[in-house]
């Protein structure tokens, strides 16, 4: 199947399950909810991270109410988002207080942690890279925050620059070195008619796919390296979801390109 999932028309523009993706952990949905409307989500045997990509909302679960969430009306305001963690065997009623773009990230859970709001001031903000490899990162649900399986982060890349670069992978369980994590990229562009190039490939090239995601498209990364290159004139935002058997983000660089981290040129023979 294709690793590129095109956005659908209507309110439910993305719907990815482990069965659809052919893997074991990540589910990912995006809903566009008009002001005044609401939806109800049952978590079942999965934990959820509800990310307000844009817009305002009030969210209630069986045990808690979280009114008046949100502040940014576009992800390109580049302020950290509001999010809500929902445990398994719960539900969430989401009411749009303004037109809402809601990402629903899910993975298997046991119910260890209660529902909670993740406020913008709790989101770690960092800048990575240098030169044309710079990006702004919002760590919404990192491996240091309470959750059972999910890792959630959003990344901004300037026009004409690269991210998820140098190429790295996290598809092999190597204790202390690398963890096995599935991953999704939910792409947005400013202006919205933009696109990027993303490649997903393995060392032996048994998987080697190049894609051009447009606004609201998702790229699935079951294994391998997965760099992104933006196009001049268009800034990039993507929301990453990762999940796997161990909730830790450990990765390996592709040997050929790891030298870029040091800023020097490789020795030529």
TrEMBL record:
GO MF term list: 5-deoxy-D-glucuronate isomerase activity; glucuronate isomerase activity
Any GO BP: inositol catabolic process
Keyword Isomerase appears in the UniProt entry: yes
Classification via Gene3D superfamilies: Jelly Rolls
Keywords: Isomerase
Cross-referenced Pfam families: KduI
EC numbers, comma separated: 5.3.1.30
InterPro entries named in the record: Deoxy-glucuronate_isom_IolB (IPR024203), KduI/IolB_isomerase (IPR021120), RmlC-like_jellyroll (IPR014710), RmlC_Cupin_sf (IPR011051)
Enzyme class: isomerase
Coiled-coil blocks: none
SUPFAM superfamilies given in the database record: RmlC-like cupins (SSF51182)
Designated name of the protein: 5-deoxy-glucuronate isomerase
Organism for this UniProt entry: Intestinirhabdus alba
């Amino acid at each position: 199947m294709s690793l590129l999932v095109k956005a659908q028309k209507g309110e439910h523009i993305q719907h990815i399950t482990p069965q659809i993706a052919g893997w074991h952990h990540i589910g990912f949905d995006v809903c566009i909810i008009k002001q005044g409307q609401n939806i109800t989500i049952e978590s079942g045997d999965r934990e959820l991270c509800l990310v307000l990509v844009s817009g305002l909302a009030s969210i209630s679960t069986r045990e808690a109410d979280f009114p008046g969430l949100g502040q940014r009306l576009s992800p390109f305001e580049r302020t950290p988002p509001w999010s809500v963690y929902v445990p398994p065997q719960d539900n969430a009623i989401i009411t749009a207080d303004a037109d809402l773009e809601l990402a629903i990230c899910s993975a298997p859970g046991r119910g260890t942690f209660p529902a909670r709001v993740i406020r913008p001031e709790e989101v770690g903000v960092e800048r990575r890279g240098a030169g044309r490899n710079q990006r702004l990162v919002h760590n919404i649900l990192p491996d240091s925050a309470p959750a059972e399986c999910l890792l959630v982060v959003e990344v901004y890349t300037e026009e004409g620059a690269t991210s998820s670069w140098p190429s790295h992978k996290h598809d092999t369980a190597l204790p202390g070195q690398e963890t096995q994590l599935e991953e999704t990229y939910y792409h947005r562009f400013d202006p919205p008619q933009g696109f990027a190039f993303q490649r997903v490939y393995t060392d032996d090239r048994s998987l080697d796919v190049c894609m051009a995601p447009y606004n609201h498209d998702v790229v699935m990364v079951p294994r391998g390296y997965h760099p992104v290159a933006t196009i001049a004139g268009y800034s990039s935002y993507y929301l990453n979801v990762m999940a796997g058997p161990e909730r830790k983000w450990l990765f390996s660089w592709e040997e050929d390109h790891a030298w870029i981290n040091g800023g020097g040129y490789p020795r030529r023979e």
